[in-house]
Specification:
The chain is α/β, with parallel strands linked by helices. Helices cover about 50% and strands about 25% of the residues. Helix 1 packs across helix 2 and helix 3 crosses helix 4. The two termini are about 25 Å apart.
């Protein structure tokens, strides 16, 4: 099982899955975030963590990149799990669009956008992983 993370300075979206990821929860990015994620990793039997890394079409990293790298280092120290970065761009906007298409209310959108973005990041990682495996054969 994999854990997908959409990092934000205030909220962090989480999704889990290996073949077909699903939204899990959005948690506050506060002093308890590492403990919460570590507990979740044990409960869900997580094997690896995938964190979205904002990268523009030019190849430049987004402004949150340094914060995400520091977050990943602390998370690895807490969980001892392998951590992978997945290049992502506009996943939050895509998540907003998906939720609107599904007819979500404004409150539902606010509560689910980050975990939906995390699912999109994890889906992309899994698709890329499968492509890499297929190319290697």
């Amino acid at each position: 099982m994999y854990l997908g993370i959409d990092f934000g300075t205030k909220k962090i979206g989480l999704a889990v899955g290996k073949k077909i990821p699903y939204d899990l929860v959005t948690i506050a990015n506060n002093d308890k975030v590492f403990e919460k994620i570590a507990t979740l990793c044990k409960q869900e039997k997580i094997e690896r963590i995938v964190i979205g890394m904002p990268i523009f079409e030019s190849g430049d990293q987004g402004t949150l990149s340094l914060e995400i790298e520091k977050f990943a280092e602390k998370l690895k120290a807490k969980t001892a799990l392998p951590i992978y970065f997945e290049a992502e761009n506009l996943t939050t906007q895509t998540a907003l669009d998906l939720l609107k298409e599904e007819g979500a209310t404004p409150d539902e959108i606010e509560n689910k956008v980050d975990q939906t973005a995390a699912r999109l990041i994890l889906e992309q990682y899994i698709a890329n992983e499968e492509e890499t495996l297929q190319e290697a054969l």
